[in-house]
Write a structure and sequence with these properties.
Elements lengths: L1 H19 L1 H8 L2 E6 L2 E6 L2 H11 L5 E6 L9
Antiparallel strand pairs: 1-2, 1-3
Length: about 80
């Protein structure tokens, strides 16, 4: 159980860092997926599958958060 809590904390730190730095990220990575590990961008790509393939070769995926960056507001309809 403790392992899951640690991973939750890791992702929460990455998420907070991502939100805090979103404006700077959108200037550099607009319309790309961004991989964040330990509160820093480790890779980005327009193609999610290609990004995941590269990232998982160098980092444990359970410690990486991947978010889409876009200047445009995305609307989800469920």
């Amino acid at each position: 159980m403790r392992e899951y809590l640690v991973l939750f904390d890791v992702h929460e730190l990455n998420r907070k860092w991502f939100e805090k730095n979103y404006d700077a990220l959108v200037e550099r990575f607009d319309h790309r997926f961004v991989a964040v590990c330990d509160q820093k961008v480790v890779d980005s790509d327009y193609d999610l599958d290609e990004l995941i393939a590269r990232v998982e070769a160098d980092f444990p995926l359970e410690r990486v958060s991947i978010e889409y960056v876009s200047r445009d507001k995305i609307q989800l309809i469920l």
